[in-house]
Amino acid sequence: MSVTIDDIRAAAARIEGQVVRTPMNLSRTLSDIAGAEIWLKFENLQFTAAYKERGALNKLLQLTDDEKKRGVIAASAGNHAQAVAYHGARLGIPVTIVMPEPTPTIKVVQTEQHGAHVVLHGRVYDDAYAHARSLEEEGGLVFVHPFDDPEVIAGQGTIALEMLEAAPDLDCLVVPIGGGGLMSGIATAAKAIRPDIEMIGVEALMFPAMKNVIEGNALELGGDTLAEGIAVKDPGYLTREIIREKVKRIDLVPEAAIEHAVALLVGIEKTVVEGAGAAGLAAILEEPDKYRGRKVGTVLCGGNIDSHLLANVLVRELVRCGRIARLRIAAQDRPGALAAITRIFHECGVNIIETNHHRVFTALPAKDSLIEVECEARDSEAIDQLIERLRAAEFKVERTTIMRD
């Protein structure tokens, strides 16, 4: 099996008007930060908030009438599930989605709301996948693979057509890789249009599956990554061959870089992007020297992130940039000590968010107490000044930090 530029152009014509032709915009602020011309493809603005609609729809539109009547099945706990469910419902095709049992309820409900029948099976994706293939045989259903299918790959490749139409002189494209369907489609189209364009893949540091395959490595896989959409242990077989041929290299990005990219996109572009969707930008900002002075395009491939998780990411970003801090202040346990501390906070213009006063569970002398203060300031310099003032007043101060990977 192979995928060609003609397949991708046919897919573009086939799905036209049924998916969103998402914006492809130059980000002036991110360009200034990176020292490169950064173009963003906003696939997080699809109806189901992810690029997966393109490949799923291209696959569904090529089913025979008999196959459409019998229905389709897929295994997914994320964006692929919603893409197949949504377009299956639009086209009147019965859809079954097999999800692992621990899948968050909100994802199950969202998939069901798109009209799919959801089956919960197994503890992990591999269990759900095996069960879906079993149900495929039993029910005579058509399996819609999330990435290792030429029709799905061709659908994803339509993104490259739109990117290069909007910015034809890009030097390179930086694309997240999970199973490899997105990169395979984009690389096939981009290299056919512009043979000199450079293709850079990006994986989460915790899940270097495709890098292992392509480079013959044995890097460890696993961990609770923010980029769960590309947390794949077994990449595609068709996709790995396309990527081996067309992609220059695969870079790995740590969790802190992914969080930083998600937060920047909210703050600068006013757009919500999930961890996997921000991985391309994370790679650019993590190693800017590789891209300095170049014209770079990347895909914000999804925007499905839990609101509570997003809130955590944004607050952690404020901690990293020094606007929020947690201080551990040792003080004598006597009247007026806390008032003296709060007065210094006031004089430095630093707001106290929360305090905890410890007298028993501490290694300090019995006459001392430990005061933990979570605080917020206009910038990191104000926090630094606060710490200096506290130490000048003979308080012992320690600052809690978030460690990088």
Report on this model:
- Pfam families: ACT, PALP.
- One of its GO terms (molecular function) is pyridoxal phosphate binding.
- It is an enzyme of class 4 (lyase).
- It catalyses: L-serine = pyruvate + NH4(+).
- Keywords: Lyase, Pyridoxal phosphate.
- The structure is a single chain.
- By secondary structure, the protein is of the alpha/beta class.
- The protein has 3 domains: about 5-50 and about 150-315, Rossmann fold, CATH 3.40.50; about 70-140, Rossmann fold (3-Layer(aba) Sandwich); about 320-400, Alpha-Beta Plaits, CATH 3.30.70.
- Helices cover about 45% and strands about 20% of the residues.
- It contains 16 helices and 14 strands.
- The protein has helices at about 5-15, 30-35, 50-60, 65-70, 80-90, 105-115, 125-140, 150-165, 180-195, 210-215, 235-245, 255-270, 280-285, 305-320, 335-345, 380-390, and strands at about 25, 35-40, 70-75, 95-100, 115-120, 140-145, 170-175, 200-205, 250-255, 295-300, 325-330, 350-360, 370-375, 395-400.
- It has a 6-stranded mixed sheet. Strands 5-4-3-6 form a 4-stranded parallel sheet, sandwiched between helices.
- α12 (about 255-270) crosses α14.
- The mean pLDDT is about 95.
